[in-house]
Amino acid sequence: xxSEPRRDDAPxxxxxxxxxxxxxxDFVAVDHVDFEIERGESFGFLGPNGAGKTSTMRMISCMSxxxxxxxxxxxxxxxxxxxxxxxRIGLVPQEDTLDLELTVLDNLMIYGRYFDLPKxxxxxxxxxxxxxxxxxxxxxxKVEPLxxxxxRRLTIARSLVSNPELLIxxxxxxxxxxxxxxxxxxxxYGLKQQGVTQVIxxxxxxxxxQLCDRLVVMDHGTFAAHGTPRQLIDRYSTKEVVELRFxxxxxxxxxxxxxxxxxxxxxxxxxxxxxxADGDETLAEVHRRGLVPESALVxxxxxxxxxxxxxxxxxxx
Amino acid sequence: MTELSxxxxxxxxxxxxxxxxxxxxxxxxxxxxxxxxxxSITTSFLYPVLYLAAMGVGLGSLINHHVHNVDxxxxxxxxxxxxxxxxxxxxxxxxxxxxxxxxxxxxxxxFAMLASPLxxxxxxxxxxxxxxxxxxxxSSIYLLIMALFGVVLSPxxxxxxxxxxxxxxxxxxxxxxxxxxxxxxxGFATLQRLILVPxxxxxxxxxxxxxxxxxxxxxxxxxxxxxxxxxxxxLVLGQLRWGGDVFDVVYLVVLVVVGYLxxxxxxxxxxxx
Lengths: 317, 273
Fold this sequence. Notes:
A: Alpha-Beta Plaits, 6-stranded mixed sheet
């Protein structure tokens, strides 16, 4: 982000991008973005599928060449120092690349050898990581029959075998059930407390709120906004939201009757969103106007609301 | 909350060794091989024994009875080094078709490797290194069994081991390049049926190419396996013809180099986007 100029004595950012572009033929996946990721923070890329998050991640992890612009990771250029950079980062790709026919432990052992770590070091760290990701009981089992959540945890464990400075997580919890997701969030929070810098992409606003110190909202290859989750909500949404459901097909008509009740009204196919400072007061006013919704809910604003405001679309279609 | 480790986070790279990057994938192949080595070793012993018994001794007794010898040696002595080269071709081809497709598409092993310090060229070189290791294992066993069957080995027979490895590599390199360019595995069956099997039959493994009609002989001389068979046979039997053998080596080395360069191209195109 082009926030304020860097001071010379500030520590160099772990990741630095200026005018970063990724093209696939004529398609521009990432369109001139600027950002900096500082040591120790959790930095999020929030956006819907196809926003350019994964392309950005793949450039940072030196697996995909930069089409245009400047990218520095750990102070080095991915174009010339890919091997050095990758020896210091851990990658959790969107799709698991585990060897399904090998055991859980062997997957970790093998991965450690790509980094040429001493066998004893890999083994000790693997046992700790299996403990950390709650997979110790499955150490000797093949990967194939494990649940999606377990495979994801193993992928995360594997990315940590090399004890990296920077952990890159591309949609770490997509497709997991809520329980598995909460366990993963807990583990990632633990890592952050131990000082591991994290870059996370997600299309779950709840995940971004839980995990990220700072984030960018990405859409069509560009950044629609950036800041802390709190800042983004303050800037782009109201304190509270009233969600109203009427009989289907009535939302457009009812919206007219609600005119002036809220700072802003969003009409979604299944509900109306009223953005307001005081949700209870707004809801009371709805009732005073003689409107009787099928259901009503007052809640705090979330990043989902920010995203809706910025792009006119919901995150998960 | 389980503490991860007493180590300083992010200092892992300080413990990393200096093993050449292209050698590192071999660790993976060795681990995977642990799963299947029993079956693989059995086949490595069994096939040469069966082939040498059936073709060399069985069919050989009939042939020796009628024509006394083939190219001045017994049929067993004739066919054994030919089968050595053909086996090298088979092993190397098998290792370079489905396993390469699996590493790209089914198991995505290559993508796991690319997230580590390894580069695309290291994946290709690592794969070919593993093929060399497999060829060394299988060809050594084959030579041993040849000796047990009483095939007359010249002192040059020790060179048949590198010759068989070279023969295998001449297939492994271009076939890996081909595999990395394929979207699915249907091309492998075609390669097997239309190229590898006919080559196995007409490259002088079972009968001297001189028995073929003139035009087929010319075709046979162009086949890579013919040169692998010729090289292995002349070394095993000690019938070296310097010009011919040097040409065999050059031909096979050119295939390895061209295949490797093509492989770099197809691997890069497939794995770096």
